[in-house]
Specification:
7-stranded parallel beta sheet, alpha/beta, 356 residues, Rossmann fold, 3-stranded mixed beta sheet
Length: 356
């Protein structure tokens, strides 16, 4: 049995679905506080699956976490739970400090107390896998080499700083207490079930509803794009074979400027679901004022995980983005369920605040 935190969110939800798609998979205890980005509809297919035990609650609730660990005796904790949107961290950093730093500290302490009391064999087999981001490394110039696991931490947003702090806590609990941890730092994920505040689902949603497609600054910010199902397979591999105390960067080998991502989405939509008036979705693109502290480029060097654990992504950007667009086109009910009035108000506030 494994305990997954944040398993109703985007990456965590995809991980749980992928894990339980194997008929012989271990049971999953899924702990999620169901903030705006957590959605039980993502897990609807598991409603009658006894291997999935959902618990609504916070990683900051030490009593609850301790009870779950003692009751279910998981062999591993996979820690996905996090506040993860840079724009929201700029407007309200307190939630990011509380969840990503204090919450991770609480989870580590509960895990340490649980692990310390395990029988020797179970103690040796236990793992705490911490899922983090490439944003902890800061930003890159256009010609600089991609981030390696040895890059210094230089976070530039409240979100990135909170994740960097959580990474440091995880490292410290390994070196100080011997807690068997492994950390992963991933690049930008995309794919099914992503809340439409992030670039790719936002653009798909706005395009289909004839809204402006807002692009920060000149649109030349570069990101490495990782299909979420590839990421989930990498995490499974790290859990199975990763070395204790190590960090593994997980990337898609797909560096793309934001404007090129948006134009690719528009071109695919033009082909898959053309507008009735014959115009291109690209005509909806509009540029807005750049956000504060916007990192210019992220890039992941994923050679370590490929060399040590024989993992590399299965999807190219083109194949992954097509799968993503097709998923959103056939799951409009899920999208409608998460794009509530509060979400629409937030999008309006975020982009009008920056102006054209």
């Amino acid at each position: 049995m494994i305990l997954v935190t944040g398993g109703a969110g985007f990456i965590g939800g995809n991980f749980v679905l992928g894990w339980l798609s194997n008929a012989n998979a271990e049971e999953v205890i899924n702990l999620d506080s169901l903030t705006y980005a957590g959605n039980l509809e993502t897990l609807a297919s598991l409603q009658n699956d006894d291997r999935h035990i959902f618990v609504k609650g916070s990683i900051g609730d030490a009593e609850l976490v301790t009870r779950l660990l003692n009751q279910y005796q998981p062999r591993a904790i996979l820690h996905f739970a996090a506040e993860s949107h840079v724009d929201r961290s700029i407007h309200g950093p307190a939630d990011f400090i509380q969840t990503n730093i204090v919450g991770t500290f609480n989870l580590l302490e509960c895990a340490r107390n649980y692990w310390s009391n395990l029988a020797p064999e179970k103690k040796q087999a236990f793992r705490f896998l911490h899922v983090s981001t490439d944003e902890v490394y800061g930003t890159l110039e256009s010609k600089e080499p991609a981030f390696k696991e040895t890059n210094p931490y230089e976070p530039n947003s409240p979100y990135a700083a909170s994740k960097a702090a959580s990474d440091h806590l995880v490292r410290a609990w390994f070196h100080t207490y011997g807690l068997p941890v492994i950390t992963t730092n991933c690049s930008n994920n995309y794919g099914p079930y992503q809340f439409p505040e992030k670039l790719i689902p936002l653009v798909i949603h706005h395009a289909l509803h004839n809204k402006e497609l807002p692009i920060y600054g000149d649109g030349q910010q570069v990101r490495d794009w990782l299909f979420v199902e590839d990421h989930c397979l990498a995490i499974q591999r790290v859990l199975e074979k990763g070395r204790l105390g190590e960090t593994y960067n997980i990337g898609g080998w797909n560096e793309k400027a934001n404007i090129d991502v948006v134009k690719t989405i528009c071109a695919m939509l033009d082909s898959i679901q053309p507008k009735g008036n014959g115009k291109s979705y690209a005509e909806q693109i509009t540029f807005v004022k750049d956000r504060p502290g916007h990192d210019r480029r992220y890039a992941i060097d994923a050679s370590k995980i490929e060399k040590e654990l024989a993992w590399k992504p299965l999807e190219t950007f083109e194949s992954g983005i097509r799968k993503t667009i097709e998923w959103y086109l056939t799951h409009q009910q899920w999208v409608s369920g998460v794009t509530s009035g509060s979400y629409r108000d937030w999008v309006s506030k975020q982009y009008s605040a920056h102006g054209k």
